[in-house]
Structure formats: structure tokens, C-alpha cells
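Researcher: Please predict.
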Amino acid sequence: MPAADIPVLHLVNRFWIGGAERQFVERLRLHPEGFRAVVGCLEASGPMLEQVRALGYEPEVFPLHGSMMQPNTAVQVARIAKLVRKEGVKIIHATDFNTNLLALAVARLTGAKAIVSRVDLGHLRSGFGRWHREAEKLNARFADLVVANADAVREVCIKDEGCKPERVVVVRNGLDLAHFDSLAAQPLEAELPPGDTTVAVIGNLWPVKGHRALLEAVALVKDSLPGVKFVCAGEGPEREYLEKRILELGLQESFFLLGHRLDVPALLSRVQAACLCSSAEGLSNALMEAMAARLPLIATSVGGNPELVHDGDNGFLVPYGDSRALAVKLVTLLSDKKRMAAMGRRGRERVESELSLQRMADGHGALYRRALGKAPLVDRIARAA
């Protein structure tokens, strides 16, 4: 009689629109063979929740109600520990800052193994005070394993945070291409502005995403590329500044802020290129999805971006914040339709061969076996996946 699947508790903060949340759903979409998913969250909210439910999971909710520095946190740790014991959970796979901290605490209470996720370079905690970064560093050092989504993130964990190299594993993000292609074929929520060439910019309107530098670059090329439109899908605190600057630069007919969009695959299937101007990234889901949509890319040479965009092959890399360099590459790329199409094809081929959902699931399966002492100590499980 075959052994029962080993339960793994997956914890996420909430189900908002973001790269970590999208990859959380993909993690559940093709769960590693031999392991059973149990799902928990801190807040049952956000548009990605229905996708989780559609996969057959109803998350257990462990509400923090604000800061973790309050007695309720201990209550929720106890509740999670009770679920771990009830389900026979052997591994807790956390997704983000809060759940990483909770996973380690629960693991120490129950004897389960704690796997914490690192999907960025630590920049997202800079606005919350020093204690967030210090807590993140300590958490990574004491977890059983740290799973990073890019080599650049792994290097931060080892060199800047003091993690032992053998405990930091790279498992790259993955895409279910059949699911992505079916979504790409769906109608748009709202039509895009007409133009000869449209460039998609996918990412919330946060300072780290570099929309300001892109706006200045677009102002430099609007006369050279009069038919080109830039459409930004995402929302955030930069909107007011960007709206004002669009008016100042006279870009009302060139640069459009679309707000939150749940139809990103369909949007990408109807544009001709994609751009990402961030100051820091892990392994960008926005770039991966643009590659899946066969789009040529322009991205900043930061974090994990060079691991996705091979300069001159499937797109171009530019220094962060250099609007003039960005403008030059925009003109170079968008003036050559044949080259754009070839770059887009090569990007799709890379997703198919290196960033598939099956490859990610195999990587997570190897990660879980290693956590349980059933895999050799190698630096990068994902390399063998």
C-alpha cells in the first residue's frame, strides 16, 4: 500500500495582486508529487483568493489584526501549531515577511521544518524601519531552509545576511503556460488606447518600480516614436506624481495609467513590447509573463532581471534611473519590428525550457525532500530539476 502524501502547510499574508501572491497560486496549481497542500493565510482578502478556492483550497485564517508586536500574535501562533498537529504537517512553507516569522515560531513549537521564502533583495522592508530588516535576517539564519527565487536573492541572503550557503536554495518561479495562454485569449476588461506600437509596463505604482525614469525617457522619444503608447497596469502611491508629470510633459496621448488589472495575460497578448524600470527585483513575474507572451523586453540591470533578460537576445538591459540610456534602447528596439519579433520568440522559448510550472514543482519537491533529510546537501536543487 503506498504511503500517504506528506502534508505541507503553505502560509501567505493575503491574496492581493502581486508577484508573491501569483506565485503562491502557481505553487498550489501543480503541487509536488508525494506532498499534500494545506493552506493558511493571515487575511482572507484580495482578488487572488478566488483562484485559490477554484483549485479546491479553503484557507484557514489566522488574523494578526495589525502589528505582530501584540499578544494576539502568540494566540495565532498557538492556533497554527494546533493545525500543524491536527493535519500532521511536517513542513511549513511560508511566503512573505509576516508568515516567514510565524512559520519559524510554529516550527520550533511543533518540530515541523520551516522553509522561509525570499523573493526580493530586502528593499521592500526599508520603509518600515530597521527592525523589519533585522528580523528578516535573523529569521533567514535560523530557518531550516531558505528558498530564493533568483541567484541574486540567494547572494543577498548569504553575503549580506549571514545565511549558510548550503541552506539557501534557488527554485525559480514557474508559469503554467497552458493556463497563461488560455487567459491571454480572453477578452480585455477594458480596451487599450489605439496606437501603432504599445509597450506594457506591469507593476504597482511604487517608487521601486521606477516609473518616474520611464516617464522622462518617454518624453525624450515621443517625437522619434510618435505612434508608440505606454500602458501601465498597477496602482499605488506614485499615481498622483505620475499624473501631474504626464501633464507637465505633454504625454496625455502617450502614457496611460490603467490601474489594477486582473487581465494581464490578455493585455500582454495585445501589445508589442514590455518594459520594467525597477531599482530592485527578485525574479520578476512581470518579465516572465511578458516573455511567455512573446514580447521583447527592456529592463533595468538589477537583481534577478539579468537572469531573465539576456542583453541583445530577448531584450535589452539598461542602468537603473538612466532615462537617456533607456530612451536610446526604446528607439533601438521599437524601430525594428523584425528584431522585436525574434526577441519575443526567444523569450518564449526560455520560459518553455527553463521556467515551466513543472520545473518549479520539481524544484519544490526536491526542496521538501531535502528539508526532511531525504536529499543530498547541494547548493541548488533547482539545477537538477
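Model: The first strand starts at residue 6 and ends at 12.
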